[in-house]
Amino acid sequence: MRKNKAYLSMFLLVMFVTSLFTFGSGTANALIAPGITVPSFSQLKDNPKYPDPFKFLDGTRLKDRGDWPKLRNEISALAQTFEYGIIPGKPESVKGSVSGSTITVTVTDKGKTVSFTAKVTYPSAGTAPYPAMIGCGMNSLNQQEILKLGVACIDLDTESIASQTNNNRGKGKFYDLYGSNHSCGDIAAWAWGAGRLIDALELTPAAKINPKKLGVTGGSRNGKGALGIGAFEERIALTIPQESGSGGTGNYRFAESKGSAVQRIQSTVGEQAWFSKALDQFSYAVNKLPYDHHQILALCAPRGLLLIENPDYEWLCNEGCWNNGKCVQMVYQALGIGDRMGYSSVGGHMHCSLPASQYGDVNAFIKKFLLDDKTANTNIFKSDKNYTLNTSKWIDWTVPTLTGTVPEVGSDTPASTPTPTKPSYTPTPTKPANVEDVNGDGVVNMADALIIATAFNSTTGEPKFKANCDLDRNGVINMADILLIAAKFGKTF
């Protein structure tokens, strides 16, 4: 009987915590701004249209450009919750070292340490510290032309961070640090890894790279990754995904309307572990997705964004990419920064083999955003196909006339992310031997569960034992940690 009462008490506590759950103090170690309440899957409504990129979660619409960061944070929270996984913020320690053309990034968090590398090709032109284009896995753009501009090229070893080979979910340095069951798919893990590379560049002048002038690119599946990096890492000044298709520049809803000839959301989910398992629930319910990828592209605003496309490969659903390009163009134009976003689609070449006819488009964006060339013409929106956006079918919203000025993104990371050397959680003097014994009093009971409840309730202060609350060591304090206590609750009472 006593044991049953204990379980009942735990159930009531769980229900109480569920009612409190917001992305508040419990995710301060994640790239989600505090105070955002994300609806559950069951609360989402079917919407066959492209979701309104100007609408807040409370149903109001953007009126002032100064509020764009708030709306951006909400879109980011939705995307991390339902598609990418919750990206951890900066860990306890990041260090960088340079040997020749190799940068080694060493990350320590929660008692574990991992290292990964990036390979730098330095330009013969220009002056150090150099701006740089980071290749997600590799750079498939006009690398020699980029080097001639005085811009370095960095190849980030994303495969070692999170493997996308043979659908190896949970394999790689990221998962060695945060656990193989972490919510992040490969792309979110790569975004985390790119952030740690930038941390290392900021701390390592010997690398001869200017961390305030960085772009990111990648082709095909790595183009999906490049978009993820640029969307979530605000220190990236320029994002150039190349022929990335579904899960990248493509639109999930449009792809669904085209059938099996193109890559749809269920194929994107199943091909590799690029995304969180949470995306699975939308495989045959795409209209419940509370956003689409025109809004993922919009996460790059107010920074530079150039979409490189190829209409020759039906699988990539180029028309859906065009649709998204037009939608995100509306966002950039409404924000008063239309020349910071471009679209270039040219066929007649192999997949992710950039033709000479697109060199000028890429160079213009690099000159503007990495070399501060204010004369570079980035008013580029072109395709060698005659696509049109069917607004009556896909759009039931209007572009607002906004007031104010969109805030510029500085070199600093979002305020919700701790600094590189600051511990993620406040340390306690002693660590209990029994991980479920949060307060170290020798007993696993309701008091331990309440501490965890307090840790992720944004309306209360940081508890004394917060450092002990992440029981499953996945970088997030949430319901799963309470349930670990529940598993032992009856045994101790």
UniProtKB/TrEMBL annotation:
<feature type="domain" description="Dockerin">
    <location>
        <begin position="431"/>
        <end position="493"/>
    </location>
</feature>
<dbReference type="InterPro" id="IPR016134">
    <property type="entry name" value="Dockerin_dom"/>
</dbReference>
<dbReference type="InterPro" id="IPR018247">
    <property type="entry name" value="EF_Hand_1_Ca_BS"/>
</dbReference>
<dbReference type="Pfam" id="PF00404">
    <property type="entry name" value="Dockerin_1"/>
</dbReference>
<feature type="signal peptide">
    <location>
        <begin position="1"/>
        <end position="30"/>
    </location>
</feature>
<dbReference type="GO" id="GO:0000272">
    <property type="term" value="P:polysaccharide catabolic process"/>
</dbReference>
<protein>
    <recommendedName>
        <fullName>Dockerin domain-containing protein</fullName>
    </recommendedName>
</protein>
<dbReference type="GO" id="GO:0052689">
    <property type="term" value="F:carboxylic ester hydrolase activity"/>
</dbReference>
<dbReference type="GO" id="GO:0004553">
    <property type="term" value="F:hydrolase activity, hydrolyzing O-glycosyl compounds"/>
</dbReference>
<dbReference type="InterPro" id="IPR054579">
    <property type="entry name" value="GCE-like_dom"/>
</dbReference>
<feature type="region of interest" description="Disordered">
    <location>
        <begin position="406"/>
        <end position="435"/>
    </location>
</feature>
<keyword id="KW-0732">Signal</keyword>
<keyword id="KW-0719">Serine esterase</keyword>
<dbReference type="InterPro" id="IPR036439">
    <property type="entry name" value="Dockerin_dom_sf"/>
</dbReference>
<keyword id="KW-0378">Hydrolase</keyword>
<dbReference type="Pfam" id="PF22244">
    <property type="entry name" value="GCE_fung"/>
</dbReference>
<dbReference type="InterPro" id="IPR029058">
    <property type="entry name" value="AB_hydrolase_fold"/>
</dbReference>
<dbReference type="InterPro" id="IPR002105">
    <property type="entry name" value="Dockerin_1_rpt"/>
</dbReference>
<feature type="compositionally biased region" description="Low complexity">
    <location>
        <begin position="413"/>
        <end position="435"/>
    </location>
</feature>
